[in-house]
Every structure is written in structure tokens, then in C-alpha cells.
User: Which sequence fits this backbone?
């Protein structure tokens, strides 16, 4: 009986392999779209996966022997878009794959600091943010409206915030919007439900979350950073005790580094970038002025390498501050009154920073790769 089973298994293996034959696959890829080396041969009926880099402002189509097979599938790895994939089944013959791009959106080459208009038609845009699910929101200061902007720059009205004056906005990990409305801070769900979560600000301007769900808000007129805990308890986190003119914008922008152990605050009236270490008990350590002498710095953000990007409001300049505190001008002479900014992600391309221009009613995007 044992010999019979072995013999039957041997016959099955021969039969199972009799129709499995490898065929050559030629790859026509002069632009080097493919990022993972492919085999030279595949079995007939085998599923083939082609991995390419992500292209921006263009769609990519895969052809098998000059016949269209499919367009790209975007691969998301833990919230980060990493590459594109294409799938087909290997035919029972030698074959060739090639690519074609959509000609209505040709591939464009960028250099560091290149700037272009991404979207226009706002009403004094002030804040710009991108949610984890890939939606861009823009706050309109003149109308107190929040707009959505798709990856093609098309604007759609989302919600009106019942506030004195709408300034900066941010989203949490669940995509809920938080808006600084001068004297109040609001929470806004995707279903347009608006809730006031804190009040009694001199001028709530910018917002940022830490990794424990605490929301930090700059009060530009009182020179204070407030902390709003997840249970909505409001407390003073940093009080600079600076006795200045009440009409002056003291502190404006705020951001954490990527490890949440340093908090950066923009002191607009003095042209400084401040750094506060976050101590083990969660409080702020002593202030350090890392950059001074700037002309009206306004808002700030941080990339994955802990480089800081800061808008200079009155001069229309975007600067980059490296982790070792070197300052580099990325672009100037194009923007008029740059305010809020966000680094792209997902469909909005992480090689760019998006900047709201409060005077020209434009969202610009600037190449920073």
C-alpha cells in the first residue's frame, strides 16, 4: 500500500508539472519606472507583480504585448504611500511589458525651491492641513469657512465655523478637525458636527497635538501656550511673561519634532524661533532661542528628518532650518503674505510643502526634496 501511494504521488507530480512551462518576459522600461528587479522568466498562469516608484502629476499604464492591462494601484504602508503596483497573469508564450503615461498630465521635473500655484480662489486662506485619510482642508479667514481641496486643486466648501475670526486648523489621528477661532477653539467631525471645546483666549492662533492626545494652542496676544487635555481641561503650558503692546502678535506658529521631545514656538514680534525641551513629567523645560533676526516669522512645521520650515509673513519667504540650526532660504519673491503650511502626503506628494498665501488667496506648493 505504501509503495502504491508513493507511485501515485510521483505520477501526480509529473502530471501537475506537465502544463507548467516558463516563458521569457521582456521589460521595456527606458524611464526606469520599475524599482524591484523582475525575473526573466515566469510560468504560464503565474501572477506577476510589477512595482514602480510613485509618479506625480501623471498616471501610468501597463501594457502586455502592446495591449492595455491595468493602471497603477497605490500601496499604503502604515499611512505612507510607498510605491505603485501592477498585476497581470503570464501568458503561455514569450511576452513583453511596457508603460505609457497619460499625456494630459506630462511628467514634470522639479528642482529644490521651485514654486507653483496649486489652488486659488480662497478668501484670505490662513491654515492648511492634510488629514490621515488624505483630505486637504483650508481655513478662510474672511468668511470663517473651511474648504476641502482635492489633489487636482479643486475647492469645495465644507463647513462654516461660528467664530470671531478663523485662523489655523489641524486634524488628529482620526481625521477630526480642530480650529482656532480667535477667542475659541472648535472640534469639527467629518459629518460637520461643530463643538466648542475651549474658550477665553486673547487670540487662539495655531494648534498642534503631542503623542498623548494633548492639544497645544498659541495665544498670539497673551504670549501664552495653552494645553487642552483629552478631557478638555485647559491649562497654561508656557507663559512667556512678555510685557508688550497688546496689538502685537507675540507668538504664532507651533510644532513638535518627530519624537515629541522638543516643542518649537515662533515668536513673531521678536523674529525668533524658540525651542522648549519636553521633560519627563511632561512639562516644558527652559526656553532656548535657536534662531533670531528673522523678519516676521509666522508659522512652522517639521518634516520626518526634523528639519523645520517657517513662513516669513511680511517678506513672502519660506525658509528651512536644519536639525543643526542652519537657515536656508527655499524661495522668495513669489508669495505675498505666506501663513500656514503643511508638508504633503499621500496624493498631495511629500516632496512639496503647501503654503497658504493670505493676500493672493492662493495655496502654493514648493518643492523641498
Assistant:
Amino acid at each position: 500500500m505504501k509503495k502504491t501511494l508513493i507511485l501515485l504521488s510521483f505520477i501526480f507530480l509529473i502530471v501537475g508539472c506537465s502544463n507548467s512551462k516558463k516563458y521569457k518576459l521582456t521589460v521595456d522600461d527606458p524611464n526606469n519606472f520599475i524599482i524591484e528587479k523582475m525575473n526573466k522568466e515566469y510560468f504560464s498562469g503565474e501572477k506577476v507583480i510589477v512595482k514602480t516608484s510613485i509618479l506625480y502629476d501623471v498616471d501610468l499604464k501597463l501594457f502586455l504585448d502592446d495591449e492595455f492591462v491595468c493602471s497603477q494601484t497605490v500601496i499604503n504602508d502604515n499611512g505612507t504611500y510607498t510605491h505603485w503596483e501592477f498585476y497581470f497573469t503570464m501568458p503561455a508564450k514569450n511576452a513583453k511589458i511596457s508603460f505609457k503615461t497619460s499625456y494630459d498630465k506630462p511628467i514634470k521635473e522639479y528642482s529644490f525651491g521651485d514654486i507653483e500655484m496649486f489652488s486659488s480662489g480662497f478668501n484670505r486662506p490662513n491654515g492648511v492641513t492634510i488629514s490621515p485619510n488624505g483630505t486637504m482642508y483650508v481655513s478662510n479667514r474672511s468668511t470663517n469657512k473651511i474648504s476641502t481641496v482635492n489633489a487636482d486643486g479643486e475647492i469645495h466648501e465644507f463647513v462654516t465655523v461660528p467664530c470671531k475670526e478663523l485662523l489655523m486648523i489641524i486634524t488628529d489621528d482620526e481625521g477630526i478637525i480642530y480650529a482656532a477661532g480667535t477667542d475659541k477653539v472648535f472640534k469639527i467631525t467629518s459629518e460637520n458636527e461643530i463643538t466648542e471645546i475651549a474658550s477665553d483666549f486673547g487670540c487662539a492662533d495655531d494648534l498642534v497635538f503631542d503623542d498623548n492626545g494633548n492639544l497645544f494652542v498659541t495665544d498670539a496676544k497673551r504670549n501664552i501656550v495653552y494645553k487642552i487635555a483629552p478631557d478638555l481641561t485647559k491649562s497654561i503650558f508656557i507663559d512667556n511673561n512678555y510685557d508688550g503692546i497688546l496689538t502685537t502678535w507675540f507668538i504664532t506658529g507651533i510644532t513638535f519634532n518627530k519624537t515629541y521631545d522638543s516643542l518649537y514656538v515662533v515668536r513673531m514680534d521678536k523674529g525668533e524661533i524658540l525651542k522648549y525641551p519636553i521633560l519627563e513629567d511632561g512639562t516644558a523645560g527652559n526656553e532656548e532661542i535657536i534662531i533670531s533676526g528673522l523678519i516676521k516669522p509666522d508659522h512652522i512645521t517639521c518634516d520626518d528628518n526634523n528639519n523645520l520650515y517657517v513662513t516669513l509673513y511680511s517678506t513672502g519667504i519660506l525658509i528651512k532650518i536644519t536639525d543643526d540650526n542652519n537657515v536656508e532660504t527655499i524661495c522668495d519673491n513669489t508669495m505675498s503674505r505666506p501663513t500656514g503650511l503643511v508638508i504633503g502626503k499621500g496624493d498631495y506628494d511629500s516632496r512639496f510643502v503647501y503654503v497658504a498665501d493670505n493676500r493672493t488667496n492662493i495655496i502654493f506648493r514648493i518643492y523641498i526634496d
